[in-house]
Amino acid sequence: MSDSLNPSQALWPAGFSSAPIILLVDDEPNVLSSLRRLLRPCGYTVLTAGSGAEALDTLTTQAVDLIVSDMRMPGMSGDQLLAQVRNRWPDTMRLLLTGYAEVSSAISAINEGGIYRYISKPWDDEELIRILHQGLELCGLQREKARLEALTLSQNEALRELNITLEDKVRQRTEELQIANQEILLAMEKLKKTFFTSVQVLSNLIEMRAPTLAGHSRRVADIARRIAEKMGVGTELQHEILLAGLLHDIGKIGYPDALFGKPLNKMTGEEAGLARKHPINGAAALMSMPDLRGVAELIRSHHERWDGQGFPDALAGDKIPLGARILALANDYDGAQIGTITTKQMSVDEAKAYVLEGRKFRYDPDVADAFGQLVGRMARQPVLERRLSGAELEAGMVLSRDLYSPDGMLLLATEYVLDDLLIHQIREYESSFGKHLVVCVHA
Questions:
Q1: How far apart are CA 379 and CA 206, in angstroms?
Q2: Which residue of 2, 15, 286, 372 is most buried, as measured by CB atoms within 10 A?
Q3: pTM above 0.70, yes or no
Q4: Which CATH number characterizes residue 406's domain?
């Protein structure tokens, strides 16, 4: 049996979005009627049962928020009923109606049935309503607590899954970025090699005009780089010195053929005037390339002398850029051996002596000292290599030496990695000239 009341007639306890459901259990119908009348204004849904067995049947089919049971009932006492309710429907709030003579039974109900409160007969109406309202409030709070705990658990699980997803996404994105970064680095490395090859091609344009200069720029660049490294020069300046060594004679591109390889002291006045302009012309040729401005400065000053008797600006001492001071010595050392300093081609020892004699007036003493310590170790170390023709080459092989044409023109630099296209070009070159190239690769 139940009484459903209009929810607008009463204020439900916190935590309830619909009318709380109360089950009243007593074997006396007049007690049930009295309690139902008392609770009618409260807006609760009130169910009644005349015995413990009937109450259990009701609970089996109907969710109940709070149960109020009389202690003394035939068949099943109130404490026995509430003990079963505790075991089977632990979320249902439990109250006990008991007389003054039933205190020991009430204690048993508290222990066995886990009741919230017990109410003494005869009860005070206001006190009874207050106790029921407090019990329902506690029920609502427990229900809200359980809801929040479930929500927190659900959110934590969702957050855990989100973290796993985010970690996977971050890991995937990191891998993608690493791959992209690696591709960029490879592209940059390829671009650097292409740029360096372009510089070598420019250097070759001069050497193609004069067989005596074949390999000169390459050797000057290598010697200058070693001296710079010996002196502890920074990596960036070492790179500029290397490039300047390869391009230091680019200003001679417009020379008459008769001037190539001719010592300065053997030139006519007009020829010498033209020769003295080649550092200026070389620097000007690189003017439009911002990345080579430092290189252009070294090229302009590579014929200056420590004592101020050089050209084109008659700079002296520390006024001459360090890279140009290094380049000047390296240029003269190789030039002495190929006959561009004097008409005689000097031996290695003679060229070394010539350079060291110029310490303090032609060359920076510190540069000359570094050269003196280094020159004895400039002999090539034995390299394990194979000497092959174009037909024997395979992609992935690495040059162990510079590759020159039969006329002495540099084709490819040491440590260049061969690919199928380059190998095809080498074979075409051999076919065009009817000669096999000797290509040295690392064994």
A1: 26
A2: 286
A3: no
A4: 3.90.105
